[in-house]
Amino acid sequence: MKTLVVIPCFNEQDSIANLVKEVVVYGYDYLVINDSSKDNTQKILDEQAFSHLDLPINLGIAGVTRVGFKYACDHGYDCVICIDGDGQHPPKYMKELIDEVENGYDYVLGSRFVNEKKPFSMRMLGSRLLCLLIRIKTGKRVTDPTSGMRALGRKVIELFDRSMNFYAEPDALCYLLHHGFSVKEVPVEMKERNAGVSYFANPLKSVYFMLAEILSIIFIQ
């Protein structure tokens, strides 16, 4: 199965080189999509001759991944796996997700909580709320709706290439479950960010994310 690793990247000068070198070991095609980074990310990608696209404007996570899906669709890939450029998604789990796509699943999530309990924190409280809303809307139980590590089969790649009216991963997941696509969660362990700044470090952005996801799940997806 022809597979592409899509790596969205914004201001990840301290992690992107090591991550790409880890990905290359597994032999899959890959594409780093530099979402108009303001640091030295583009310089590193150019100097290391990594396979990448440099976007002229910042599109955000939904926009930048859709660029990857369009690229995959145009170049005949059967599977796309997304891993974040901050290095929190260990490449060693890629094959497990890809294998489930080969087994017939349309959408496979790398989940931290298949076999582990969620800790009690404000962020995990938001995750629990999203899980509840998705279950109410679709009747399906998921454990890690915000996971950005996911593998997509050809049907979902083509769907997201044509029309992807999603803000982020949870409402995309809700849409797919609601429309009957087969979804599976695979247990993975994720790393802590050790460089750069998380989107959720800004409390206002975190609140905006939750409001956008709740409204999208309830009224759109």
What are the segments in which pLDDT stays under 50 over at least 5 consecutive residues? none
Class of secondary structure makeup: alpha/beta
CATH topology: Spore Coat Polysaccharide Biosynthesis Protein SpsA, Chain A
Strand order of the largest sheet: 3-2-1-4-6-5-7
Output the radius of gyration.
Answer: 16 Å
Assigned CATH class: Alpha Beta
Overall 3D form: globular
Strand portion: 15-25%
What's the N-to-C terminus distance? 30 Å
CATH architecture type: Alpha-Beta Complex
Helix content: 40-55%
Mean pLDDT: 92
Order of helices and strands: EHEHEHEHEHEHHEH
Largest beta-sheet details: 7 strands, mixed
* Total count of strands: 7
Give the tally of structural domains: 1
Task: Enumerate how many helices there are, as a single number.
Answer: 8
For CATH, the homologous superfamily is named as Spore Coat Polysaccharide Biosynthesis Protein SpsA, Chain A
Overview of this protein structure:
- It is a single chain.
- This protein has 221 residues and is α/β, with parallel strands linked by helices.
- It has one domain: Spore Coat Polysaccharide Biosynthesis Protein SpsA, Chain A (Alpha-Beta Complex).
- It has helices spanning 16-24, 41-47, 60-74, 94-102, 122-138, 154-162, 169-178, 203-219, and strands at 3-9, 29-34, 52-54, 79-82, 107-111, 150-153, 183-187.
- Strands 3-2-1-4-6-5-7 form a 7-stranded mixed beta sheet, with helices on both faces.
- Helix 3 crosses helix 6 and helix 5 (122-138) runs parallel beside helix 8.
